[in-house]
Amino acid sequence: MKHKRNILKLSIIICLMVIFCLIILPLTIVSLFHDEEEPLQPLPKTGTIDIPEYINVYRHSSAITESVKFEDYVAGVVAGEMPSNFEMEALKAQAVAARTYSLSKIIRSGDGGNPDHPSAPVCDDTHCQVYRDPIELSKIKSKEWMDTGWPRIISAVDATKGQIMYYGEELVEQPLFHSSSGGKTENSEDVFVSAVPYLRSVDSAFESAAPYYDEQVKIPLSEFSRKIKNTHSDLDTKAVNKSTIKVLERSSGGRVASLQVGNLTLKGREIREIFGLRSANFTVSVQGNTVLVTTDGYGHGVGMSQWGANGMAQAGYSYTDILKHYYTGVEVY
Ligand SMILES: [Zn+2]
Asked: Does residue 27 form part of some domain?
């Protein structure tokens, strides 16, 4: 009798184990995997950011802060930053970049302004973006420009009204641009401090029409040494000669990362600043008592090349193609 009871108990245990193994366990596993396969809820689209109607702009010449209609401000920036005879798609790309930059400045400044102009998130010169209102434009531009150039800029801004750039659904904060790259743009960390994922070095293949190719600057060797010594007092000027002025390293975009000058190793951008070069994308040689510096491109080389954007537009690319090319991985909406 006791033996039969034991068999019954064992049978019940086996039955329970079978039920667990064949039914409950698979169900649990299926439900676990099912949960994993469930698509993740997308993050709230930052495309829901409200574009304000007005923006405060600090005007340097008058030291007055003006409240300007946001889209009028964007048009004034495009007028200040890009030639109006550039292709329409390039003007549109510039409008989206300007709008995105301005919006990020507003959001970052919160209720206040920029540390350098606390009454406004943006100012009207290269510290932020160059901005010119229609009254200023009518004074500095020709009547023909006001009749033909200005309407083109207005249409580029209107055609992209409210559109901004996002990276990973977050507002792009640093849609940097420059005049021309010399053929390849730069990784942000090679020019500035931090590595920004959408500011990567890319080819800029359509900027051969840019006016800043192969610009040669001639500097007497003595002046070259003297100017560097002004900022680097440890320079041994006697050690500066033909064989001790040479490029040591270049960035992925082709700019001079480091350069030997006599007993010192300097950064290419230091040389650019000291001699006011258009670009840190240069070659250097010494002929007799003269230092020859030949630069390619104009500007820091990070983000969108404006001449490259114009060349892409001429080749049939749209403004979104242009923005997506120069700002890696962004979306425009
Ligand atoms: Zn500013």
From this structure: no
For residues 88, 94, 96, 97, the Cα torsion angle rounded to the nearest 10 degrees is: 160
The Å distance, Cα 125 to ligand 1 centre, comes to: 7
What distance in angstroms lies between residue 84's CA and the mean position of ligand 1's atoms?
A: 23
The predicted model gives 286-313 an average pLDDT of 95
3-state helix, strand, coil split of the chain in percent (to 5) is 45, 20, 35
Stretch 290-312: mean pLDDT:
95
The verdict on residue 204 lying in a domain is no
* Residues 173 and 222 reside in one and the same domain: no
User: pLDDT tens digits for 41-84?
Assistant: 333 355 567 788 999 999 999 999 999 999 999 999 999 999 99
Instruction: Give the amino acid at 65.
Output: T
Residues 276, 237: one domain?
Answer: yes
How many structural domains comprise the chain?
2
Whether residue 176 sits in one domain with residue 306: yes
**Residue matched to tokens 């007497």:** 220
CA distance 153 to 84: 6
Exposure on the CB side of residue 12, measured as CA atoms within 13 A:
5
DSSP 242: G
Q: Is 36's pLDDT higher than 80?
A: no
309, 163: one domain = yes
95, 228: one domain: no
Residue numbers of the domain that contains 65: 50-180+301-332
| Alpha carbon of 196 to ligand 1 centroid (Å) | 21
SS3 of 43-55: CCCHHHCCCCCEE
**Out of 26-40, 129-143, 211-225, which region has the weakest mean confidence (pLDDT)?**
26-40
Taking the centre of ligand 1 as the mean of its atom positions, its distance from the CA of residue 136, in whole angstroms, is: 19
Cα of 9 to ligand 1 centre, how many Å?
83
CA of 118 to the centre of ligand 1 (A): 10
In angstroms, the CA 188 to CA 201 distance is 8
